[in-house]
Design a protein that fits this description.
Elements (H helix, E strand, L loop, with lengths): L2 H20 L6 H26 L7 H18 L4 H24 L5 H20 L4 E2 L7 H8 L1 E2 L2 E2 H19 L1 H11 L1 H6 L4 H27 L1 E2 L8 H11 L11 H20 L7 H36 L2
Length: 327
């Protein structure tokens, strides 16, 4: 665990204590369960966004991907009667294709990640709205899918399965990032892509795989969100979710310049964001200020990252000069 992660954990405890003192309902089982569910839902795709940010890129299409794939999943299971395991496999497969498309456009055609994923944001949202003719996609009245519902919105010992799914994904991604060659290559590409390429790293493959991971986790989140809401309104479902993901990643120590990041930090960032949302609700702050809180959090995170980077650079320079001056 990095120092940033420890500091973020302490901040979460402090904010939680402040909220509890203002409103003891913060630690009620119902509120904790609902908050854990939201942490799981948002944490799933925030981890994928973190991997993209570590390459020095960004994915602005996450919310629209969740809307489009959510619509398709609901229709496949509810309207066309596709068995839910097959429907889940198809949705995850579509996530792979979306990630490959983003990665190839960025690496082969040298397009900017911002442009590619911004276009994706518009395209996927437009397809979802056109496919449903601006109507809401939902399951048939009275329909029930016990196994699917248990897997996605069920709870074990009071713990939401979405939260458990996020923990499993986080554990796998932690191993990938911190204990595999791919993880080391990912950070190397983010720090200096040209140097990484000259050192023999297949930078194109690494970048493409980062976008595939992001899209696959977004597709899994789309399934969980669709089951959580039971219906998908394509014009609003998943709106601004990419901001939640970016904010969680930045708070978790992912540098927008690339090359730095921590899976534990991203998870803690998702926890802090939901804690702040909980604070807004429990303290009676108008929900219209949610986005103001989100913007302030991202701004403070970027400012803190820049200050830490400047401090590290200054210290490294002083250390190097001190070594040169030694007889």
């Amino acid at each position: 665990m990095q120092k940033k992660d420890i500091g973020l954990g302490i901040l979460i405890i402090v904010v939680g204590a402040i909220v509890y003192m203002r409103n003891p309902l913060f630690l009620s089982p119902i509120n904790l369960g609902n908050t854990a569910n939201l942490i799981g839902l948002f944490g799933l795709f925030a981890i994928g966004q973190g991997f993209v940010i570590m390459t020095g890129g960004i994915d602005l299409s996450v919310g629209s991907v969740i809307a489009l794939l959510g619509v398709l999943f609901v229709d496949m299971v509810g309207k066309f009667g596709v068995p839910w395991p097959l429907a889940m496999a198809i949705i995850i497969g579509l996530g792979v294709l979306i990630g490959l498309a983003h990665g190839i456009l960025i690496t082969r055609f040298r397009l900017q990640p911002f442009v590619v994923t911004l276009c994706g944001l518009l395209i996927y949202r437009g397809i979802a709205r056109g496919y449903t003719a601006e109507s809401t996609a939902g399951f048939p009245f009275g329909s029930s899918y016990p196994q699917l519902e248990w897997l996605t919105i069920g709870r074990s010992f009071g713990v939401p399965h979405s939260f458990l799914a996020m923990l499993i994904v986080a554990a796998v991604m932690w191993v990938v990032l911190h204990h595999t060659v791919f993880g080391r290559h990912l950070c190397a590409v983010g720090k200096n892509e040209e140097a990484a390429r000259f050192s023999g790293i297949n930078t194109r493959f690494v970048t493409v795989m980062a976008y595939v991971i992001c899209a696959v986790l977004a597709s899994i989140a789309a399934i969980y969100f669709a089951m959580f809401t039971k219906s998908v309104q394509p014009s609003s479902h998943g709106n601004f979710y990419e901001l939640y993901a970016i904010a969680a990643a930045v708070l978790g120590g992912c540098s927008l310049r690339g090359g730095e990041g921590s899976v534990i930090g991203i998870v803690l960032g998702a926890v802090l964001l939901q804690e702040l949302q909980n604070l807004v609700n429990l303290l009676g702050i108008p929900s219209s200020l949610n986005f103001a809180v989100m913007g302030a959090v991202i701004l403070l995170g970027v400012l803190a990252d820049q200050q830490f980077a400047s401090y590290r650079t200054r210290k490294n320079t002083e250390r190097a000069l001190g070594l040169l001056q030694k007889p």
